Fold this sequence. Notes:
There is one protein chain. This protein is of the alpha+beta class. It folds into two domains: about 5-45 and about 145-245, FAD/NAD(P)-binding domain (3-Layer(bba) Sandwich), CATH 3.50.50; about 50-140, D-Amino Acid Oxidase, Chain A, domain 2, CATH 3.30.9. The chain is about 35% helix and about 25% strand. It is built from six helices and twelve strands. A hairpin with a 2-residue loop joins strand 10 (about 150) and strand 11. The two termini are about 30 Å apart.
Amino acid sequence: MTALSQSADAVDVAFSNGERRSYDLVVGCDGIHSTVRTLAFDEWPAPSFTGLAVWRATMPRPNEVDCMQMFYGRNTKAGVNPHSRDEMFLFLVQPISDGRRLPPDRMHVLLQEQLADFDADIVSYARAHITDPSKVDYRPMNAFLMPPPWHRGRVVLIGDAAHTTTPHLATGAGIAIEDAVVLAELVDTERSVNELLEKFMARRFTRCRLVVETAVKLGEMEKDTTIPIQAHFDLMTATFRQLAAPL
């Protein structure tokens, strides 16, 4: 998508291959650097840098890893999470001073160094299996919350285009999927576009704000080593109880 223009009844969209098409509704689910947001909205806040980065690496899963495990070190948090019968991924959250990228050919070595603070057997296993730099992912973490409304005329933002969260609650993809489910449910009604988008905002904003703001708060707590670990768990538990409410 390279341009859009709206009328009372449709959104006319231009594409990079020269085509133009008309739609009843345009849904922008194109990430934190959303093109749809740039084309449809006049202003929005910049994403905020959290001072944290997350590392991830995939590897074979030992049988004893049948649920997520987390470990808190002096300066970083690490963990393992099974995602199939045969594989798991290791994650590590690291405080950083800026969002610079790291040399791609040394990613495995740098992650191994970050894991030196941990002596749990499963972390030692993971450290030994981090040998391929191409299988290590490193991302400085930003957070973003679009002020309401997330719609302008017949254009609406969902997912990371409207609310980008850090992974501290492991809920970012979940609330993006929820957006799509709720929007699809509302589109399948007799409401006008404006009515359904207002209803969408009423059902989504508070819930998504809870995830974004709580995840950022958890990250700030991790950077303060004087805060007891139980306080992290208490905040996560309270948040998940709220998220268990119906959509």
